Amino acid sequence: MPRPSTVLALNAGSSSLKFGLYRVDDLRAQILVSGEAQSLGEAASDFSVQNGEGKDVFAEHAGLSDHAEAASRILRYVAQGSWPKPQAIGHRIVHGGPHCRDHMLIDAEILRQLEQAAPLAPLHVPSALSVVRVSQALLPGLAQVACLDTAFHRTMPDVARVLPLPKMLRAEGIERYGFHGISCESIVRQIGANLPARLVIAHLGNGASITAVKDGRSIDTSMGLTPAGGVVMGSRTGDIDPGVLFYLLREKGLSSDEIETIVERKSGLLGISGISHDMRRLHDAAASNPDAALAIEIFCASVRKQIGAMAAVLNGIDLLVFTGGIGEHDALVRAKICDGLEHAGMIGPNAKTSGTIVMHSEENEQIAWHTRRIAQYPAVPPA
Questions:
Q1: Domain layout of the chain by residue ranges
Q2: Residue 4 has pLDDT above 90, yes or no
Q3: Which of 321, 315, 330, 245 is nearest to 280 (CA)?
Q4: DSSP states along 270-324
Q5: DSSP 124
Q6: What is the pLDDT of residues 33-84, one digit of tens each?
Q7: Topology alike, domains 5-148 and 194-358
Q8: Distance CA 35, CA 24 (A)
Q9: Residue 351 near residue 177 (C-beta atoms within 8 A)
């Protein structure tokens, strides 16, 4: 058995940067230290750390301006600890674009191709690539691995992947890519030998997607070319009539940047409620605010419809998994979603085979597994 190796996983969100330092061997990934820099770019941004047992060991109001500064802070903290130093770094990259289809070692050419994919996920890819550059600058001798959210969905058949657009646009890579792939990989790996033939994964957080998994492979998913499509999300529209965008462009005189801001940052739960993108705040307000209550109902209906669509793709559901911040922690939302599915006989007591469970997606651990496999660094840590 190879000796354990140490991997640092860096997971960039739209306004956060999570990290986990792992000792990884052929059988397990042991967490040594983890943490998160949150609310980047805001005065209230903070940096917190937990030890291998999940206990808080450090916290500060860091005032971090962006992901690059957060990456520098995390790397300094990791370098000062008594744990083994990382031998490779794995980065979550939301979108690989048409050229980067699988998890891969980052070199100058791969970095250039990932930069070309940045317009397809502008809330995520530019910040993640800034983390890569800081890591390369501060730890130039370490292998850097891109772990792509889109990679899990490369197995989708053409009937799911191809968008109904002219062929010349499809040739340029305009197609359904799918996201939350690292989360889906983690769920599939954790289920292991008990993996059913027909699995639906509902990753519900500020970003949300529904994925149909057949025999461990993605065959359809709700997000499309970008992470803005699919179900209603925290501040994103999800699927929307393209005519709405034409109307805003022509009749309201909005620019493409203004429309993108509406679609990505001002819609979804935030837009419907007028209060917040945070489901917890909407629950607090729902009793006295009809718009907050409506936002919750629309979200649940949107998710329910997509689960139903994936059931049709799979010809039934053997297991429905809820994951993500809302999926794991909001029992009321899960109940509202499942109520309609139970009446349709897709899950619950009236279904012949299907069950529903809640699972925690170990994205950082999944990044560590991929990084160890791809980086091919020495099994024995350097002195």
A1: 5-148, 194-358
A2: no
A3: 330
A4: HHHHSS-S-HHHHHHHHTT-HHHHHHHHHHHHHHHHHHHHHHHHHTS-SEEEEEH
A5: T
A6: 999 999 999 888 899 999 999 999 999 998 999 999 999 999 999 999 999 9
A7: yes
A8: 18
A9: no
Round to whole Å and give the CA distance between 228 and 236. Answer: 6
Whether the model pTM is above 0.90: yes
Q: What is the DSSP string of 297-312?
A: HHHHHHHHHHHHHHHH
Residue that the structure tokens 């805003």 belong to: 248
**CATH 3.30.420.40 matches 5-148:** yes
Contact 93, 149 (CB under 8 A): yes
Helix axes 331-343 and 290-314, enclosed angle (nearest 10): 50
Instruction: List pLDDT tens digits, range 313-348.
Output: 999 999 999 999 999 999 999 999 999 887 666 666
Q: Which residues are within 8 A (CB) of 273 and not within 5 positions of it... i.e. 6 or more apart? A: 282, 285, 289, 291, 292, 294, 295
Task: Give me the CATH code for the 194-358 domain, please.
Answer: 3.30.420.40
Q: CA–CA separation, 106 vs 138, rounded Å?
A: 15
What order do you get walking across the sheet with 88-93 strand by strand?
Answer: 56-60, 46-51, 29-38, 17-24, 5-12, 88-93, 143-148, 104-105
CB contact at 8 A, 70 and 37: yes
Any alpha helices (H) in 219-289, and if so which ranges? 242-250, 256-265, 268-273, 279-286
Decide: 37 and 74 in contact? Cβ < 8 Å: yes
Instruction: Supply the residues annotated as catalytic.
Output: 149
Per DSSP, the three-state class of 110 is helix
Q: Are 323 and 358 in contact (CB under 8 A)?
A: yes
Task: Give pLDDT, residue 62.
Answer: 86
SS (H, E, C) 180-216: CHHHHHHHHHHHHHHCCCEEEEEEECCCEEEEEEECC
What the block records as the tokens of 67 is 């992901």
DSSP of 12-76, one letter per residue?
E-SS-EEEEEEEE-SS-EEEEEEEEEESTTSTT-EEEEEETTS-EEEEE-----SHHHHHHHHHH
DSSP class of residue 225?
S
Residue 2 above 60 pLDDT?
A: no
Rg (CA), the chain: 21
First to last CA, the chain: 21
CA dihedral 295, 296, 298, 302 (to 10 degrees): 130
